[in-house]
Amino acid sequence: MQIVFVRHGQTDLNKTGRIQGSVFDHDLDETGRACAERAAANFDPSGFDVVFSSPLKRSLTTAEIFTKGQKEIKIDKRLTEINFGEWDGHFLSELGQKYPDAIDPWGKAAADYIKYAPSGESFATLDRRCGSFLDDMKKNYLTKKVLVFCHGTLIRMMFAHYFTHGDMKYFETMDNCALAKISYLNGIPRVNYYNRILTFE
Hints:
Elements lengths: L1 E6 L4 H5 L13 H11 L9 E4 L3 H11 L5 E3 L16 H7 L24 H18 L4 E6 L1 H12 L15 E7 L2 E9 L5
């Protein structure tokens, strides 16, 4: 099995440095749409057997641009970005100054963020959600090529689930419209690439 993850294009919240979880459902901004279209120009969706997307607008729009009308896009709610609760929509830099114990060394929300955003989703819950999706992929598409459009924190956890027991600090947040690939062979997952940027003319 091969799974390629694509992070959605830029939104206005990405551009301003605000946390963007699942509370706010913003679509791609003008720059994000243009970037997705340029990246998709050098992307061939025809080799994939199945395509999944988060139901959030920024992911679904990116999926539509990349697949170019060639593939059915299956919506899976498990691919929705983490719910950051009270932190969603706020500047990460300001939260880091106010709650330094809830920010990891790389400047991203750490597992303890939930202490200050009690309505948010815990990293452990996100790990289980990602694991459920990955288990279904192995069960139903073991010999297939799977394409997944989703979100920055969610992709980090997908890789963390396989390779670091759910500890996301080992994986950076991918760039908008970047790709990551996992291959699964004889029960062993392997990272083929991470944060790959598609080149374009």
